[in-house]
Amino acid sequence: MEDFCSIVLKVKYPEVGDTAEIEILGKKMLDWVKLSLGDTCIAEADYDEDQTVPLLIRPYLNTQYPYTVVLFSDTPLISKTSIIDAVEALKQNGQNVLKMTRGFVFKTAFIMSVDKIYTEQTHYLNEDDFVTAFSFKQIQLIGEMLKNRIISLHMSAGVYFEDAATTFIGADVKIGKNVRIAPNNVITGNTIIGDNVTIKCGNVIEDCIVDVGAAIDSSRLYFSYIGKRTKVGPFAYIRPESVIGADCRIGDFVEIKKSVIGDGCKVSHLTYVGDCEMGNGCNVGCGVVFANYDGKNKHKAFIGNNVFIGSNSNLIAPIEVGDGAFIAAGSTLTDGVPPDALAIARARQVVKPDWQGNQFKKD
Question: How far is it, in rounded angstroms, from Cα 208 to Cα 194?
Fold first, then answer.
């Protein structure tokens, strides 16, 4: 357990407003500061320039801790290393107060007995930690510095970024080893990227799990799971609460909405799958639509294992298709299909070679 506690003062500026509430890389500035403090943060307080720091923090002090660190919400780059170094410097020098570039370290007993701080001497640490967010220009600078820190951390853990300058990785993203990330990617939220994943160009991935060996290309993924070795994209749209199994192929211009897709399925192009539970080994042709909405309510489709759905078919939910069924191309199904059956739901083709009704026929 640390022998110091921490209090964060929330600062406002005329240009940017409340720095505690401004988000950088998916986290509020106050949360960035608290992240560096860990369990040592015991209180937050509004900063009032008319009051001295001792008077501001005294109501929040915990005398069980011999030392108290005071930080500000406008320094989101502050690191745990700088905080520990400052506390150690105070101890070694036998001081009652140590003034950092932005912030203080006090002996807790001392701050209980004084109303003002008389020291003017500043103890300098890693000054990158104290870049202050007093303007939007400063906030942009801080964002770039945080972005580079996050990417450097992942690089040191075995992630290869082809172009770090065009890659945005959120603070809470976890990335495994031997992952390759191409340019122009945005990965945010509580996303987890497994080992040996390839993230090709132009993806937005938010709050997803992308399992080992998967590959994502130029697609949008939100609040979903992508199974092992599954390939997604280009230009796929995986909407929230979708689960894609292992060894699947979700191709170009495919939209998956709140559906479960079993292992080894292929949904290769130009298809909408909404509110569906699909078994393993299915093949969904081009232009298939799972019609899940009747204008008032959403309905589900249940597709068994090893089902073949021909191109340009429409499945009107609620509907159930049994294992091994085969749906002929161009069918519109309103009724269920039993296992191993062939379903054809289309008008028989009629050809009239002597038809004279074509108004566009040339003379």
Answer: 11
In single-letter form, the type of residue at position 264 comes to G
- Sort 39 into a burial class: Cβ within 10 Å, 0-12 / 13-18 / 19+: exposed
For 126-183, the DSSP string reads -GGGG---SSHHHHHHHHHHHHHHHHHHHHHTTEEES-GGGEEE-TT-EE-SSEEE-S
Residue 238, both tokens: 């995986």
**3-class SS at 5?**
strand
Picking from 105, 101, 104, the residue whose alpha carbon sits closest to that of residue 132 is 101
Q: How far apart are CA 243 and CA 261, in angstroms?
A: 6
pTM for the model stands at 0.88
Strand pairing category for 17-18 and 12-13: antiparallel
Beta strands 249-257 and 231-232 are parallel
Give me 2's structure tokens: 């640390």
Give the tokens for residue 15. 């240009």
Q: Which residue has the tokens 């992952």?
A: 179
The CA dihedral of 65, 70, 75, 80, to the nearest 10 degrees, is: -20
Catalogue the active-site residues: 269
Q: Strand 103-107 vs strand 97-100: parallel, antiparallel, or unpaired?
A: antiparallel
pLDDT of 361 reads 55
- Please identify which residue in the block is written with the tokens 């303007």: 135
What is residue 30's three-state secondary structure? helix
- Beta strand 167-169 pairing with 159-161: unpaired
**Residues counted in the chain:** 363
Look-up of token digits 């320094």 = 75
DSSP 240-279: TT-EE-TT-EEEEEEEEES-EE-TT-EEEEEEEEESEEE-
pLDDT of residue 11: 95
b/e for 314-352, b at 16 or more Cβ within 10 A? bbbbbbbbbbbbbbbbbbebeeebeeeeebebeeeeeee
Question: What averages of pLDDT result for each successive group of 10 residues across the chain (363 residues)?
Answer: 90 94 92 92 90 91 94 96 95 92 94 84 93 96 95 95 94 95 96 98 98 98 98 98 98 97 97 98 97 93 98 97 97 96 90 71 53
